[in-house]
Amino acid sequence: MAPTDNRRFSIFTTFVPKNEIMREAFIKLHLSILLAGFTGIFGKLISLSEGVLVWYRMLIASLMLLAFLWMGKKLRKVSWRSFMKIAGAGMLLSLHWLFFYGSIKASNVSIGVVCFSLTGFFTALFEPLLNRKRISLLELGFSLITLLGILLIFHFEMRFRYGILLGVISSALAALFTVANKKVGTITAPSTVLLYELVGGFLFITILLPVYLYFYPQDYLIPGTTDLVYLFLFAFFCTICMCILQIQALKSISAFTMNLSYNLEPVYSIAGIPNKKSVHSGRRERIDCIYRDGSGLFGKFAFDRIVVLFL
After folding, report:
1. What does pTM read for this prediction?
2. Cβ-proximal residues to 308 (8 Å cutoff; 6+ apart), any chain
3. Which is more confidently placed, 159 or 217?
């Protein structure tokens, strides 16, 4: 193979599964992205505020997963030090969810999930810094394409700037969580890691909740029947199943590859949103076009490249 071909091929080595383990990891990755596409929709459908929503999500998911592991006799013990590391990652996860749903509540689903696409950009910065490696200009360049898409949206949707700000903070926290999740994911079984992350995040949100409710008082804290059904579906499919798939995939792929691939999440979220003006404040069509012509285009490009080299 000519040198130029080698250089051209190396551009996409991040996305190439080299064996069956990698093939399985990429399948799990994209299944998790498919499930993640519904998180923003559930966040909008559930009428609870972002803080109360995250609290219930972590509580229900923790209890469900604990019951599954206990009945299946698959719950594993870890040292106190390991638990604290895993719980610390769970704290980052809870903060990410808090700002993510805050972004959706302050704007709409499209804004929240599109801002989430910045996670790849932050991961390109955080992962090498935290792992004491050189920053990859190639990964940074890929991520800047998404950044340009976010700036385009910000230009057209200035009235959602508070929601966009919360979304940007959310994506930075998501990048930190993914890097931390990759580190703690090898401590024990993925299901046990997720349980301890959820417990750590739940305890952290429980401590924060009184302060949150003081500054943002709520009319009601107990979910209705419809919200409760959504919460259980949300906790099982879009929390337990999705997060276990993520932890399993991270054993074989980098945090950057995962977060860059998650540029596909807004495609699933926006495609699944009912065409109602109450959901998008009459701006669904504009946001859809901006996303699909901007950062979503790169998400599709990355996915197509994965499929071509993967299969």
Report:
1. 0.80
2. none
3. 217
